[in-house]
User: What shape does this take?
Amino acid sequence: MRVFADMWAYLSDGANWAGSDGIAALLGQQLLLTLTALLMAMVVGLPVALWLGHLGRGGFLAINISNVGRAIPTFALLALLVVAPWPGTGELGPYGRAGLATLIALTLFALPPIITNSYVAMREVAPEVREAARGMGMTGVQQFWRVELPLGLPLVVSGLRLALVQVWATATIAALVAGPGLGQVITDGFFRSNYGKGIAGALVVAAVALVLELVAALVQRAVDPSRRGTPSGGHTDALSVTGATVEQPAESVG
Assistant: This one.
């Protein structure tokens, strides 16, 4: 119980939140690392996965290559990048010491859920919906933007949601190479046998992870085409929901 009392005392002391080495500043640094790595993973992974899913080719190879990242511990990859001639341990603006190495490691960690979910999202669009889009005279590009992507967007966002929370929690490893983030609080606390401080840092990481999960879940719900554009008491077909045609009630059975 003494450890939890020390944790509460650390968190309730305003001095531990203020300043360049305070919890608030370290939280902002870790959030910057997380969002930058997620953005880099989106730029690299989304176009490839979505287009391969649209074409229906190369997905097995792309998914399995990306999943290699699941088998390599992120800290091991970071250690290799830090000792290599490039990117090494050089400072990178607000990302601190070994900033580029940390970003690369976190980006590679974020790629598997993004690539897998985005590819599967495109392939799960019903064949009859694709056929209906082609029957309307849509080109392949129009079919992708107006039908496949809107219908697959919830699953795409689900992959981003998973990557966001995972990268946020993993970004604490930056402290192991003297980088920024809340990992500094955790490592310093346990290194100095100040377990209350270490647990306090871990608790802040967990709390922010829950907030990020909630926000991402709300975004995923908001982009679901089945939750918008449908009049109460009726049903619409998939093309109507995506806005590809004028909304019309689907045929009733019987």
